[in-house]
Structures are given as C-alpha cells and as structure tokens.
C-alpha cells in the first residue's frame, strides 16, 4: 500500500489521486489539501481499486497514463469506465493528461469522467477542481433531492 491506513470521518472531504508522474502528484496533492480535502494516493491499479471500494471519495484525480505506457493500457480508467454508475456517483472524477483540451465536454464523455484537464494547466488545478465539483453538484442536485424524498417517504 502507498500509505498507512487512515480513518475518514463524516466531516472529512476525501480525495484520491492516482498519478504515475511524481511532479504532478505533488502539485495535485497540494492543490487538494489547500481546498480542504483529505488526500489519499494510490500507487497501483490494485491499490486504487481497494481504496475506491472502501471510501466514498468526493474527488478522484486520475492520470491518463497511470500505471501504463499508453492510455489504452490504463487499467484504472478502464475499471472506472465499466463500473456501475451507482458505485462511482459519489465522486467527481477528473482525468489529466497531455492529449486533452481542458474542460472539453465531449472528451470527458468519451472517457466516462466528469472533466478532462490538459497537464499544461496543472498550475490551475485548484480552480479547475473547484469548477468540476461545483458543476457536478449542480448536475446531480435534482437527482439527489428526489432520492432524499423517496428515502424519507419510505417508498423504495
């Protein structure tokens, strides 16, 4: 494992980073910590899957080439893309790499993530994460309100 076990409380804002590029990892960790997130890192695909299944992360940052030489070899991205929506709905997932144009909706849709970010804009990561999270919360607001009403009324 990349880190020792870390408890996550209801007040924490957990975030998970899966990067192979050390410089990007440090930039991402700093940006998320400045935004108040409790940051965990995944060192391998297996580590990512284990962590993601145990904690409802609010934000996930994934490198396009995490543990891979080409995007097609990124097992973590493939796993997220094929995962049922109810297993990943709690997270805002951002994919970062050299081949993207930042915040291009069609690229995000093609990769089954909430947003894509070009690595040349890592210096803006803090602001880009804030925007992606806010956009995702706005998008899911009606869904969550209906879900809460159904739960509270007892009809499931």
Describe the structure.
The protein is of the alpha/beta class and 156 residues long. The protein is built from 6 helices and 5 strands. It has a 5-stranded parallel beta sheet, sandwiched between helices. Strand 4 (92-97), helix 5 (105-110) and strand 5 form a beta-alpha-beta unit. The mean pLDDT is 91.
Provide key terms for this protein.
45% helix, 5 strands, five-stranded parallel β-sheet, globular, 156 residues, alpha/beta
Q: In terms of topology, how is this protein built?
A:
Layout: E1 14-18, H1 22-34, E2 38-41, H2 45-54, E3 59-63, H3 75-82, H4 85-88, E4 92-97, H5 105-110, E5 115-118, H6 125-153
Parallel strand pairs: 1-2, 1-3, 3-4, 4-5
Largest sheet: 5 strands, parallel
Low-pLDDT windows of residues: none
- Portion of residues in beta strands equals 15-25%
End-to-end gap:
38 Å
Q: Work out the helix count.
A: 6
Q: What percent of the residues sit in helical stretches (DSSP H or I)?
A: 40-55%
Structural class: alpha/beta
Spatial strand arrangement across the major sheet: 2-1-3-4-5
What is the approximate shape? globular
Which sequence of SSEs, written as H and E, runs from N to C? Answer: EHEHEHHEHEH
Radius of gyration: 15 Å
| Average pLDDT figure | 91
Task: Tell me the number of strands.
Answer: 5
